[in-house]
């Protein structure tokens, strides 16, 4: 059943993708088109042009233009085409406002004209994010440029680089999380419903609240482990918030994660004891990757909480266990299309950052 779910979800995702790269010119092809020609060009966002000789690739100070290249790791301006962004596109694609768009593959329709004295595109009529089908471990969406600064690193250096990549993002209010979860956790078989994390049940998106048999907002990294509550930041981060049955959420409480215990009567695929919770097999990896994300995103800088994964259960403070079990779950339950789609939605529609351990599962072993 899980295999059939993944095949159907993959089909749905590809059909509804925003664009297909095959219809566009490459950056090099577009650069060879005559001035005044209408073009459709696909390429990776590699920076912000700020002069005839300078493209910012970090510390962005403008939303007014983009540089595109055929290689997401391109650094030579001679291999880039410059795209002038009119006001309609700056809020969504400008890198000062959306630094997480760095490395994204987009398709641009416009007119081939010089910009900053360089091959460029002006009078843009549309921009779409491209679905690169079959492009690798990230399940269809190219993210190689997004993680460029982490290339070749391991251990604490890799963890620090990933933190810097995912650290700055839009933050939701706790009330906004309701609508966001209706989108991120939508049941692909029934778009009127959401899929609940621990039980796997599919119930109406609008049966949410605090009563029995409704769903509420589960903090997978229990909010008491760090005392961040429901405040913006860790308390509202969609990468670890999932819809769960109210009473099952209560049963999990703030337990650490580990194998064993007694079956939960209301959802017998989940087990618990005095200091740990074991979710159903189908989401063990999901849980592990959410915990790895939280321990990477929240490192104590900028006045935020420093979250750390412990090697034991029965934790307190800003710790959550158990590392060896979470690594085991990560291996036994690989990334699913549901997770990938959820990661894409959070990135594109809500927070502007990604869970690196969904895009690159190998990072877990490199760090832990």
From TrEMBL:
Q: Name one Pfam family in it.
A: DUF6359
Q: Enumerate the UniProt keywords alphabetically.
A: Hydrolase, Nuclease, Signal
What positions does the domain Endonuclease YhcR N-terminal occupy? 25-128
Classify the source by domain of life.
Bacteria
Record's signal peptide:
1-21
UniProt keyword annotation of Cell cycle present: no
| InterPro entries xref list | Endonuclease-I, His-Me_finger_sf, YhcR_N
In its keyword annotation, does this UniProt entry include Metal-binding? no
Molecular function (GO) terms for this protein are: hydrolase activity; nuclease activity
Report the protein name in the record. Ribonuclease
What phylogenetic lineage does the species belong to? Bacteria, Bacillati, Bacillota, Bacilli, Bacillales
